[in-house]
Amino acid sequence: MVSVLVVFVVSLVWIFSVSNDVVATQIYTIDVVNEYHHDPGAFSQGLIYAGNDTLYESTGLYKKSSVRKVHLQTGKIEVFHKMGDSWFGEGMTLLGDRLFQVTWLNKKGYIYDQNNLSQIGSFQHQMKDGWGLATDGKVLFGSDGTSSLYAINPVNFEVIKRVTVKYEDREVHYLNELEYINGEVWANVWVTDCIARISPKDGRVLSWVFLPQLRQHLLTSGHTKIDVLNGIAWDEENKRIFVTGKLWPKLYEIKLRPITEQLNKNTMDMCSPPKIIHRM
Ligand SMILES: [Ca+2]
């Protein structure tokens, strides 16, 4: 009888703790504050805001990969660096006055002068692949398309720390473009319309941002050749969040709005697809 009671009490505690976790994970939808022109030929892989209405963008695809300095208001490309035809540009971040960029299916990255985008160095990293980069001003955060989030020494490029990103007990695979915002690392999850807000301390997904309306609106407006949502940039000074996607004709400034929707299995499948598909 005592053991039955113990099991009952333990079960109650477990149910209570699980339901608390579900309630504690905030979900946000978004409102569009501004929209700007974005080069529809830019296969966006890295996006950074650098002050003075200036964005830096890294783009992918073989023979088309590039690094650009872009004026926010007009979308005008002010400086353009074309990468070699055999390189596929991926995530990029700005630390000091240098841009660090990783490349797809390769452990080699490049360093550029932020003013003229001249290539001033290269590096080898220890991730499995190069997908996303961000920085808190001290270390580089990196993703490689798995559920791993890396903290990387920006001098010797050794991995300082690796955490597995999880929502509750479920690994979140395909972490893509990154941005460091107020102590969190925000990550596009490849092929989804979701952004995971991650604690870099332990890899826990603290909350989710749902953005399906952006891609859906572009599709219904006739932009049928667009690819997935990818690219997050943060204007620390003015607290502005920018997002775009691969081959999207627009870049959006968004604001988050909390919603009360409960997370269910469909939501989790939508934001954190099982690891069964292979990237083209
Ligand atoms: Ca970014």
Automatic annotation (TrEMBL):
The keyword Signal applies. Residues 1-24 form the signal peptide. InterPro entries: QCT. It comes from the Eukaryota. Transmembrane segments: none annotated. SUPFAM superfamilies: YWTD domain (SSF63825). Keywords: Signal, Transferase. Pfam families: Glu_cyclase_2. One of its GO terms (molecular function) is glutaminyl-peptide cyclotransferase activity. This is Glutaminyl-peptide cyclotransferase. It comes from Zostera marina (Eelgrass). The lineage of its organism: Eukaryota, Viridiplantae, Streptophyta, Embryophyta, Tracheophyta.
